[in-house]
Amino acid sequence: MTLQSFLETFETAAPTSSRNSSTKLSADEIENIRSAAYEAGYSSGWEDAQKAENDGRLRVEAEFERNVQNLVFTYSEAVDCVRGELKGFVAALIEGFFPELVPDLLREHVRSELLKIADDCVETPIEIVTSPDGEPILKELLESDLPMEISLVSDPTLASRQVYVRIAEREIEVNISPLLDALRSQFKAVAEDQDRIANG
Question: Would the pTM of this model clear 0.85, i.e. be above it?
């Protein structure tokens, strides 16, 4: 009997060949495990990519919506500003331009009335009676080539822009107020149309 038989051995017995053969994976099983791991990783990465894409799209859509709202607000402000400017322009035109237009309108209106009666009044003196402020305006008619004798009479009792054409016993009133009122109405109608268009 040897000394080794009295001592405890701590060596691990080598696995038997039968155990090794039972736990060994085949090449197909290894490939299947590898494929499953790849599919799991690919699927997880694809889901992360889709989530990132969806989050990015939502951020872009939200930013676009905010920009559109800002543009709509800015456009509305611009429309209101233009509308106010247009109304102010029309008001200034009516109050400022029409007085400048009155002299020409008055002269042409009187000239038109004189031409209507020219054939019947070639030999008859004609008087143009106007207010003092209308006298300078109508003086040009005295220098025109109308085929009749014309004299200008200032009447302080007449209102501004009030004119009469006297022919013998006949008197014709020349009134441009209806024409001016019609022009005002047309300008206001244009402004109102633009206002309706701006409001949609």
Answer: no
